[in-house]
Amino acid sequence: MYVSKAVYYNFICKKIYNIEGEFLWKRFLLMMLVFIMSCGKGGGSSKIFTLNLSDEPKSIDPQISTDILGGTVNDLLMEGLTRKGKNGTFEPGLAKSWEKSEDGLKWTFHLRDDIKWSNGDPITAQDFKNGWLRALKPETASEYAYMLYPIKNAEKYNKKEGTAEEVGIKVIDDKTLEVELGAPVPYFDSLVAFKTYMPLNQKFFDETKEAYFTESDKTMSSGPYTMENWTHGSEITFKKNPNYWDAANVKIETVVYKIIPDNNSALNAFNNKEVDVTAITAEQAKGFKDDPRLVSNNDGSVWYLLFNFNNKTLANVKIRKALLMAVDREGLVNNILNGYGTAAKTLVPKGIGIKGLNDKDFTEEVPTSILGYNPQEAKKLLEEGLKETGASKFPDMSMLINESGNNKVIAEYIQEQLRKNLGIELNLEIMTAQERFSRMKQKNFDLVLAGWSGDYPDAVTYLDLFESTGGTNYGSYKNPQYDALVKTVRGTADQNVRIPALVKIEGIIAEDVPVGVLFHRQKQYLVSERVQGLGFVAVSGEYYFGNLSLK
């Protein structure tokens, strides 16, 4: 609760002059104690910033976490060699400087002299090697291990075709880390800011074992905050890390993440000043038109229908095309999302800093577009596809969706479109984000309403999603040409080679439909007027906390 000085003064004066008889100091002291305690709770405190999370993170273990929610936790706890800067840029983090060789294959990072873990241990180059090799270790089963594949022999080690000693990570001394790449990666300095590249305190890891980063006392921080408390499913509390090298520029003492999946409950929490920031649905945003607290952001996400290729029906390309062409994506954006977004014509969103050969946005060079809305053609394709699979009708199927955000209304719109245009009765399974991720990982689904945001500023962070051996290929899509093109893109820094290959990948997605691309999202937030400096990013997470302060 926030109370201005004037209100507080009037409150005290009235209390003193309205009481008849002897004033009891005990009562006064008790009142003051309650007042002080109340000021430490909720989003109204001048020293506490409170943010709503729509769900419990799937994992906050830096080498294992894959979801944005886990990344939002890691943004406070962990810092790598570089860190997110303003407007999608990257800047020095635990490394004060770095250089690369003329051929772009060798990067040398120089760590700061004064960097420490939250327990006071020095952060060394060996800590980075520890974390990276752990992510690559086959037994870790990190879905994001492929993020380290640019490093020489990293993929071989991860696939049990080589040893840890062969991986191109060399500790020169405590403050110098040398990294050898398999091919030039011009954006490698932004890549190392990603959570999979975080350092690891080996002694602490050995002590916590399987409990590593599963409870507040099982975390160790290299970043601006430490985790003070984690009430699972409810709340996570962070305190400023006094050992953080840049602690002088961290202006908020306490950060609280409240986990509120229900949209209406989240909005009520904001209106009651229990949270300072919350995402809201497109429908809720209608009530805040022209309200300065409403912030809309192109969050760099693409939303799509994820197909399970282990399902005989969905393995048929004509059926996948039919399902996509039966959904009016323009109508979805305009009528369901109230114009907050863009009907997708490419998998890669426009405007996230990816340039093509003509120096325009990469997506403008893609001649092939995602299949357009065409119910008549969809019916024809569905009939042909069912005939090819030997089925007389479309079998019963379900689509998994998250219970938070706009997901339910989007799914219901798709459900109605398929019913109206194809006579298909699609069931909806509503669940938490954790449940959905678990089902996707187990390949236990028919369809999923899924979304993806870029991990680093390059088109391949989207276009390698469906690589047959990749950790994010939940639908089990397999296409040797697709895999070869991804390998080509990763293997060169020559834009004259990369851009044509990326364009071809977009063409495969449009023609082969590994997923049914729907729209690029514009996300809405409510931000308290007392919040200053909070940024929103399109890649590598959702928020930028570097300039955060409170009025």
Q: Can you describe this structure?
A:
- The protein is α+β, with helices and mostly antiparallel strands and 551 residues long.
- The chain has 4 domains: 35 residues; 109 residues, Periplasmic binding protein-like II (D-Maltodextrin-Binding Protein, domain 2, 3-Layer(aba) Sandwich); 134 residues, Alpha-Beta Complex (Dipeptide-binding Protein, domain 1), CATH 3.90.76.10; 227 residues, Dipeptide-binding Protein, domain 3 (Roll).
- The chain has 17 helices and 21 strands.
- The strands form 6 sheets. Strands 11, 12, 13, 14, 15, 16 and 17 form a 7-stranded mixed β-sheet that branches.
- Helix 10 packs antiparallel against helix 12 and helix 16 runs antiparallel to helix 17.
- The radius of gyration is 25 Å and the shape is globular.
- The N terminus is likely disordered.
Put simply, the count of helices is 17
Structural class: alpha+beta
Largest sheet properties: 7 strands, mixed
Q: Give the overall shape, derived from the CA principal axes.
A: globular
CATH architecture of the largest domain: Roll
Question: How far apart lie the N and C ends?
Answer: 14 Å
Unreliable stretches, pLDDT < 50, 5 or more residues?
A: 1-41
Please estimate the helix content: 25-40%
- Count the beta strands: 21
Describe the secondary structure blueprint for this structure.
Elements: H1 5-18, H2 25-39, E1 48-53, H3 68-77, E2 82-84, E3 90-92, E4 95-100, E5 106-111, H4 125-136, H5 154-158, E6 169-173, E7 176-180, H6 188-191, H7 202-208, E8 225-231, E9 235-240, E10 254-259, H8 263-271, E11 277-280, H9 282-285, E12 294-307, H10 317-325, H11 329-336, E13 341-343, H12 375-389, E14 397-402, H13 407-422, E15 426-431, H14 433-441, E16 447-453, H15 460-463, H16 480-490, H17 495-512, E17 515-527, E18 531-532, E19 535-536, E20 543-544, E21 549-550
Parallel strand pairs: 1-10, 14-15, 14-16
Antiparallel strand pairs: 2-3, 4-5, 5-7, 6-7, 8-9, 9-10, 11-17, 12-16, 12-17, 13-17, 18-21, 19-20
